[in-house]
Amino acid sequence: MAEVSTGPAPYIYVCTRMRVRKAKLLPREDYLRMLNMSLPEITRFIEETEYKSEIDELGASFRGIDLVEVALSWNLAKEYQKILEITPGALHQFTMSYLRQWDIQNVLTILRGKYQGVKAGRIKEILIPAGKLDRVMLDRLLAEESVERIADALRGRSLYPVLERELSAAMETGSFARMENELYKEFYRSIIADSKSGVKGGPVFLEYIRLEIDIRNVQNLFRLRMGRMDGDVRDMMIPGGSFSVDELQRIAGMENTDDVIDAFQKKAGFESISALLDTVREKRSIHEIEIELTRIMLGEMERLSKRYPVSICPILVYLEKKKFEVQNLRALARGKEANLSSERIGDYLVM
What we know:
Elements: H1 9-23, H2 28-34, H3 39-47, H4 52-58, H5 64-86, H6 89-99, H7 101-115, H8 120-124, H9 135-143, H10 147-153, H11 160-173, H12 177-195, H13 202-226, H14 245-252, H15 257-265, H16 271-280, H17 286-307, H18 313-337, H19 342-346
Helix pairs in contact: 1-18, 5-6, 5-18, 11-12, 12-13, 13-17, 15-16, 16-17, 17-18
């Protein structure tokens, strides 16, 4: 994509706007307050925030948890599209590349929903049309009668080669996990290629993406170990991070968890998660580990955005923090609907 602007002014403007947007995200104190609210109280609280227009617009059609779910999805999708509209040049290209991950999430949500017999309307409520597949295309996929026809409708799209290769096995096993992993591996391969294409700001984008890959690989490895999965794990690892897939396979083969942690901590660049990995020695649950890794990742991304204040980093930090705000609000609403305790719900929040 060609540059559409000259000079640093448009980049400075957009990065400044991202910091303003980030400042409007809900603080930790608001989540703690909502933990002690009922679902109707949470809905009223959300209505007084940046989600007001969606709550008001959808209030006549939805109630309770459905209203919260749909309003959050609409708000996130619209916010991401607004950001794409104001980002110039290389920033636009990198942002669009990064948002393609929503195509993966939406297609997998549709495939899993169709496979499990979930009604199309219910699936639609949780879709986030923030990638290249817009609302019209997602509606078309939802209208298809079978999983196979959904995949065929994506012929010619970047997702299709993986779907064509993996869908049959996913249907036979009833699990979409391997296909999901292959889709994300292709996604990261593609954005790494974008970052190395010579476009301005590419090295900074690459540093950010490698951090994300590292966190994902650490999460996957511990998830596999706690699931007692033996053998070759290389297919489950994402290439392009600080560790090669062969190094990750060697680490996965270590019998002692302390040895695994030591191997990660000895790697240059892993200082930021060393303290967290020490807590794994205390046999914490995989859920606790994943939440903490996510918090560490956001902290490191924030650090990168401060080191490179006029770059893709402030945009990506906001995209991620906005995403987790929506996930937090969704977890709060679902937890209250299920009558979970405040302590249990709090365990699922990234604050």
